[in-house]
Structure formats: C-alpha cells, structure tokens
Design goal:
The chain is α/β, with parallel strands linked by helices. The protein has six helices and eight strands; from the N terminus they run ββαααβαβαβαβββ. About 40% of the residues lie in helices and about 20% in strands. The N and C termini lie far apart (about 40 Å). About 20% of the residues are buried.
Length: about 170
Amino acid sequence: MIFIKKDKKEALTIYDIAELAGVSKTTISRYINGKFEYMSVKTREKIERIIKEQNFIPNKSAVSLNTRKSKLIAFILSDIENAFAAPTIKAMNALLVKTNYNMIVSSSNNSSEQERILIESALKQDVDGIFINAVDYNVNNFSDLEIDVPVILIDRKINNYYTDFVGS
C-alpha cells in the first residue's frame, strides 16, 4: 500500500505507516480495507489518529493492486447528447457515491467501432463492471471480447447477447 501526503505529495509505504503506529503492515492493510474486527479498538483509534495527524490518504491505485478491485464502473453511452443521458448519469452517480465506486462516462457517438474501442479501454482500466447503452439492437460488435466483469445493458437490448438489462 502507498499513502499520499496531501500537502507535499510525499509517498509513504504501508511499512512506514505500520512503523509509526507500532503495528504490522497486515494490521494497516486490514484498517485500510475496513476489517476492524481483526484489531482492538485501541489499535484502530491509534492508526486513525496517525493517518489523520499526518494528513495521509490511501492511494486508490495501490489499494486496487492489492484488492484486485478498482472501484470503477464504466458507463458507455451511445449518445451523450440524448435527453436520456444526463438524468441517467445523475441517478447512477447518486447510487454509486453511496458505495464508494466511481464512474467513468464515455460516449460512442453512435459508432459501433467507437463503442468497441471504449469497451476495450474500460477493460484495460480494470473496471469492476460496465453499463452499456448500446449503439444498435442488432449489432453485437463486442461478443468476441473476453469480458470478465458484469455487463448491464441500459435501455437497449442487444439481440443474442444475454446479460442483465435495465430499461425504461
């Protein structure tokens, strides 16, 4: 784990934080991941105080390397200028904020080719899921991709592509 000090951007490792707290790196990792049942209240409060006093925040990229969870969801729209887009983005964002997930929003501009590129890009960013407002009902231009995260189709089903669907 890496921590970033907000004021000077000086990176510390999980080992440095553990040394300051007088605990193991495993204990710090558990603290960061909210596994408080594995430590005493006194230890948790000590770690919290040190991190707060030093103005340190966990680096999400480093945490995701360890947990294999990016806490990112991709939302690929066929047309971001469509009247459907803004309220949908707003509603999804309101729900995701409560779960500590962040959303990457992109638009394929009604291009099947661009849609495929955006899906590939999202997968390279290790997103934890993809919402797709597909360009076309009949074209499944990403069926050959190895998508190993949940996919939810939004407002437009794709023929012969079976996944979760949310429609209006």
